[in-house]
Amino acid sequence: MSSQEEGIIAVSTAIGRSGIGIVRLSGSEKLARFMLERMTDIRNPSPRYAHFSAIRDQAGEVIDRGVVIWFKAPHSYTGEDVVEFQTHGNPVIQNLLIRSALTIRAEAGLRLAEPGEFTRRAFENGRIDLAQAESVMDLINASSESAVRAAEKSLVGEFSEKCRDIEGKLIDLRTHVEAILDFPEEDIDFIKEGRIRERVDELNQKVGTLLEQASQGNMLREGVVIALVGSPNVGKSSLLNSLSEREVAIVTDIPGTTRDIVENTIIINGLQVNLVDTAGLRETADVIEQAGIRKAMGELSRADLILHLEAPETLDSQAELDKIKGHVRQGTKVITVTNKIDLLREVPGNTDSHVYISAKTGEGIEKLKAMIFDAVGFRNSVQGVFIARRRHIESLQKTKESLEKVREYLSQDQFFLDMVAEELRLAGVSMGQILGEFTSDQLLGKIFSTFCIGK
Question: Is the Cα dihedral 83, 85, 91, 92 positive or negative?
Fold first, then answer.
């Protein structure tokens, strides 16, 4: 029996005690009707109607009383017949219900669902595309209001619609180019007059805009990692507490207080920011502090932005800054933050890469936040932004690379239309991968394995 012929069942709500708990079953109409007859008092079920009924085990004993809804295929989440049992939110009740259902249909192909299997069936049955399927989990895991709104746009298909539009135009253009290859005498003016180039430029611009929006959406989904580094006692932990608006790290006047990594996640204007406070950088004989400093340098390689802190007493820190830059990823920006300006008589002006603050009084903190946004390239707006993943960005980048090659071929005196057609084909494949049209089972398994079992 294939996996699609088997029915699946799982708890769809979060594990724990609550007002309502939902157990979801998906499979054939025969399975749905059989389970309704055996496990409930409903004899003539109406699709999409909330029936109140006793829910019974294999012996006919009442497990609970609740709402039962039958969603008839194809008008359901998975595209199959779906039955939802809405009981009191007690894991004991839900587990008993599932165990009874599996006992009743043990020989007829009902089993526990695998992680993400309901959503995978929705994808395989054409209810949603792969980008929409991924956005289900992104909506569940969204950490801010901005991320929720962006994930919702992906779920309803805004991102997919734009991808499908570009893919369709790529196919149309490739079809035209291949027709010219087959009948060169018919449409050579189409090339000479630059109409292919115009359409390629238009597509390239659309892909570029979509890539920028996807990058913003990916930042909303994953957040950014910001490492706070510098000498001991310059106020790294104080800045962590100030940005967190609560006491996360211990602050003392004793140098070397922070010996291990201290992390905290905050939301700044809709963006998830993972702050990493590190041990102070200095020469020391303390073995534990040395280990902390090594970990601090290691954190630099995973950070999206570095805040290099200094204080009035450590302003000559160029050597330290050079050392820090030697450990960061290529392209990672470093902002120098001079703390404790409440101790200065005169405060110099800020620059694009240097800001003056007081973590103690809060002066300059808002300016620092603005500089963080500029440095990571985040715009504080969800207009036109949808949640996107790294694989989406990689596919868009491949599409753009193919279009750039097409532009290069068209700019030469001799037209390489066979190469143009091939690059247009590759660009179309890259766009199709976003939607799941050219996706391996291995990738699908990896994507859906990150889902909840009941999703």
Answer: negative
pLDDT-based confidence at residue 280 (cuts at 50, 70, 90): low
DSSP state of 451: S
Furthest-apart CA atoms within the chain: distance in Å: 84
Is 197 in the same domain as 78?
no
Summarised one tens digit per residue, pLDDT across range 223-277 is: 899 988 887 778 888 888 888 877 765 444 444 444 457 788 888 888 888 988 8
Q: Which helix (H) or strand (E) holds 307?
A: strand 305-310
Q: What is the CATH number of the domain that holds 34?
A: 3.30.1360.120
* Domain match, 319 and 371 both: yes
Same domain, 347 and 412: no
In a domain, 448, yes or no: no
Could you give the strand order of the β-sheet that contains 110-112, starting from the edge strand earlier in sequence?
51-56, 62-71, 81-89, 18-27, 7-11, 110-112
Same structural domain for residues 248 and 192? no
This prediction has a pTM of 0.79
**Does residue 366 share a domain with residue 286?**
yes
- pLDDT recorded at residue 182: 76
177 close to 424: Cβ distance less than 8 angstroms: yes
Question: Domain for residue 1, yes or no?
Answer: no
- Contact residues for 17 (Cβ-Cβ < 8 A; gap 6+): 89, 90, 91
Does residue 354 lie in a domain region?
A: yes
Question: Which SS3 state, helix, strand or coil, does residue 203 take?
Answer: helix
The predicted-structure confidence for 74-98, as pLDDT tens digits, reads as follows 999 999 999 999 999 999 999 999 9
Cβ atoms within 10 Å of 384's Cβ, excluding its own: 16
Residues 361 and 237 in one domain: yes
Angle between helices 195-222 and 390-410 (to 10 degrees): 160
The verdict on residue 416 lying in a domain is yes
What's the domain count of the chain? 3
The one-letter code for the residue type at 226 is: I
Phi, psi of 23 (to 5 degrees): -110, 130
pLDDT digits (tens, 9 = 90+) for 4-61: 568 999 999 988 899 999 999 999 999 999 999 999 999 899 999 999 999 999 999 9
Task: Report the alpha-carbon distance of residue 114 to residue 9 in Å, rounded.
Answer: 9
Q: Are the C-beta atoms of 236 and 228 separated by less than 8 Å? A: yes
**What letter represents residue 311's amino acid?**
A
**Domain range for residue 210?**
136-219+389-435
Mean pLDDT, range 208-227, rounded to an integer: 91
**Shared domain check, 342 and 229:** yes
